[in-house]
Amino acid sequence: MSNVAIYHNPACGTSRNTLELIRNSGTEPTVILYLETPPSREVLVKLIADMGITVRALLRKNVDPYEQLGLAEDNFSDDQLIDFMLQHPILINRPIVVTPLGTKLCRPSEVVLDILPEAQRGAFTKEDGERVVDAQGKRLEK
Questions:
Q1: Residue of 7, 9, 10, 12 marked active site
Q2: What domain of life does the native source organism fall in (predicted)?
Q3: What percent of the chain has pLDDT over 90?
Q4: What is the pLDDT of residue 61?
Q5: Amino acid 1: pLDDT
Q6: Is 12 a catalytic residue?
Q7: Residue 7, class by beta-carbon neighbours within 10 Å (0-12 exposed, 13-18 middle, 19+ buried)?
Q8: Alpha helix ranges (H) inside the chain
């Protein structure tokens, strides 16, 4: 069992890039397919607290339930927003990565580099061609 976990959606490029950055550090994370196995309320609340973000900051806005439920309106409590995320896991933004060094919403994917316990082992280029890590495992600045 790994000490790194990723709440992953394989259909998402950012999530795929984040997973590969974790693997590029020599770590095979625990992969949680959160659309198939959503977190419990307790786990979701802890993830939000550990990330130090608001509940609303974790909401995905560009998905159908967001519009259908009227979530753009700011008249929902945090508990109600969490209920919506649990009922419609697609509303949970991703990927969320948990490591011994912290928990982050990894958007963009290279945010994961801030919390990985192991250094990158080689070059990494995102799916879109953006180089993120050089051959020596050093993070490239934009």
A1: 12
A2: Bacteria
A3: 96
A4: 95
A5: 55
A6: yes
A7: buried
A8: 13-24, 41-51, 64-68, 78-87
